Amino acid sequence: MVRQTIQIFARVKPTKKPTAVYTVDNEEHSGGSLEFVIPRDLADGFINNKRESYRFRFLKVFDQATNQEEIFETIAKPVADNVLAGYNGTIFAYGQTGSGKTFTITGGAERYSDRGIIPRTLSYLYHSMVYTTQISYLEIYNEVGYDLLDPRHEASNLEDLPKVTIMEDPDQNIHLKNLSLQASANEEEALNLLFLGDTNRMIAETPMNQASTRSHCIFTIHLCGREPGSATLHRSKLHLVDLAGSERVGKSGVGGQILTEAKYINLSLHYLEQVITALSEKNRSHIPYRNSMMTSVLRDSLGGNCMTTMIATVSSEKTNIDVRFCPIFALSSSGLADRQASEAQGDLLKLKDILTQRDNEISILCWVYLVALCMLWFSPLFHMLDLKAQNTHFCSASSSGPELSIEQQEAFEIFRNDHGDRLTLEDNKAILKQRFAEAKALGEQVNQARNRVSKSFSLPPLPPPNPQSDTVEETLRSQIEEEKKNYKSTFGRLKGLKTEIEHLQHLLQRSKIKLKRDFQDWWSQEATRLQYWHHALHYGIPYYMLHIPFRALSSTTMSSTSIPLTGDHQTDADILAFIRARQSLLTRTGISSSIHAGQKRGKV
Ligand SMILES: Nc1ncnc2c1ncn2[C@@H]1O[C@H](COP(=O)(O)OP(=O)(O)OP(=O)(O)O)[C@@H](O)[C@H]1O
Questions:
Q1: 321 CA → ligand 1 middle, Å
Q2: What is the pTM of this model?
Q3: How much is the ipTM here?
């Protein structure tokens, strides 16, 4: 297996504020370099021997103008290709708080073109080949793991959520308990999971960044697929890691919970540095993975034939730049990046080596597989041969043959007599027969004892059935049936009554409304009538004249008087004119005489 080098790139965050003086130098063969010039601060004292220039080497340095597409093409695409080929991969964003790690890994929220490595990689993977894909999103906060895709995240406190724990099987494979693997059939589903996880992340405001991510987040894409035309399935995973911002505790001016978080963050970043430095050392046998949760989780995806890429994000703002305390520069100054730069030229050859090596490994694996298959087929034969050999061996050993090994002697221990001499096969058979007979006799005794015990504990026999109780039961049962029937019919009747009552209530309601309307009509007519009566009395017109139904008068007759029958705004003169007109009309039509007659008969 060819070991892959860990590749480290740097990205300078664009800024509008005054920047520290820095220069970027990207040479084709020797990689890139980033140099900062930080003038000595006189406030530090008269004697100040601090360095003013800091130069760091990376595989490539991306300056402020670099866009997200370029970052994906150079950094993430090669790793994604490697993952598609069946190898694990990890991409880290590493840097000070506010230097652009989340922007690089997830992306900015303002423009579509600001999409970061995760969305672009998902799009690339889904367009590359048909794979079954699963997503997990782990958050490591203060060295405790949480599942960011756990639906309970929104409703519960962090402490109430189940903690993700690391378990190791005998083959030293890592398993994460309580971390869900969510199947995502397409890019959209995967992006939804990313957004769900991002909303659940632990974010706090720090003096250096208003929305500083306080935890390490590992977005893992688990792939399972086969290359076209191949029957072999391969599994691989790609970890996209947004590390919590490293910060100088003194400088960030924080306390309380944020100070605790900062301590955890810095400590875990320190352990990560240790692992990365150890991986880059050629003859290093022990890699300290177990020191932190993050390195334990990423153990199978760091170093070896896994492609590990780091992008060191740098903010060139004067207030933020403190190269001496940014851990990534510690890595760079430890010579790791230097080594990588010089190794950059050999990468192409190495990749070729890897592929040849892989081909060799595959052919070796095929041979091993073939041999294993043969052994599986012939194993019964081998077993028979082995038994035969053992038998011969034993028979010869039991007489006067060669000495047995200690294990064989222990296995054959029962075949010795009281003096420790080995017995012949016939003797052994006899002993076994005798022991078998003894065991049988013992079994017999146990059975007898069991019978005795069960007899002494047996329950009294059941009383014979009582015919009288049967009839009582029968009567009771029929009574219950009768009651049930009664209940059913009563229930039916009640139901009918209820419907009837509801119907009557409805009718009542309607009658009430009608009555109200009739009363209102009657009342308005009565009011008008009273008004006329009042005027008639006033002007000496007999009461009976007003009792002639208004409808008895034809509309034509009324129109000739041009006085309306009813009206709220009639003047006294109008009403008087109406009464007079009615008086003359009654006289003309002769109705007044019949009224007189009726009045006399007491009908009016
Ligand atoms: N390359 C860039 N281009 C444009 N804006 C950027 C770039 N890098 C970062 N930013 C902006 O800078 C701000 C801080 O960036 P970001 O949140 O990614 O920093 P961070 O390193 O993840 O911080 P922390 O460690 O505190 O979470 C954001 O508003 C982000 O949009």
A1: 15
A2: 0.56
A3: 0.96
